[in-house]
Amino acid sequence: MADTIKGDYYYGMGRRKTAVARVRLYPNGDGSITINDKSAQSFFGPRDTHLATVAAPLRALDLNSDAYTLTVRVVGGGTSGQAGAIRHGVARALVRLNPDFKAALRKAGYLTRDPRMKERKKPGLKRARKAPQYTKR
């Protein structure tokens, strides 16, 4: 195993759209996920898909999620972008924990930063690509 980063946790930063997540992964934990000082269930509310997104890197490696504790600070974006940013950060922290995880996480696509962003609005248009309705007369 690699040596610990800044004491007793492993750090990973993840980004998605305009959301930025700073993830701390504690290897000898109790399986809890804390996001902005709230539990993950209360942070994401009834959206179980976001919880599944956050835990996806642990499931991809068949790791016992009860062996790790995650604390996350996430800012910017909406809930979907924040969930994707946390997933990216968790994957990066797992690679710092054990570099052998890199191949499996890369194959699953969790280490690649999703480059899609909201397209800017253009002048003369209503939105990025929607033009005003054409009237012949």
Notes on the protein architecture:
This protein is elongated. A hairpin with a 2-residue loop joins strand 1 (10-16) and strand 2 (19-26). It has one domain (10-108): Ribosomal Protein S5, domain 2. It has a five-stranded mixed beta sheet. The protein has helices at residues 40-44, 48-60, 79-97, 102-108; strands spanning 10-16, 19-26, 33-35, 38-39, 69-75. Helix 2 packs parallel to helix 3. It is α+β, with helices and mostly antiparallel strands.
Which architecture would the CATH scheme give at its second level?
A: 2-Layer Sandwich
CATH domain fold name: Ribosomal Protein S5, domain 2
Helix count equals 4
Secondary structure class reads alpha+beta
Series of secondary-structure elements, N-terminal to C-terminal:
EEEEHHEHH
Any idea what the shape is? elongated
Largest sheet: 5 strands, mixed
Can you identify the CATH class? Alpha Beta
The order of strands across the largest sheet is: 1-2-5-3-4
Q: What is the share of helical residues?
A: 25-40%
Mean pLDDT: 92
In terms of per-residue confidence, which ranges show pLDDT below 50 for 5 or more consecutive residues? 1-6
How many angstroms does the end-to-end distance come to? 73 Å
Percent of residues in beta strands: 15-25%
Radius of gyration: 18 Å
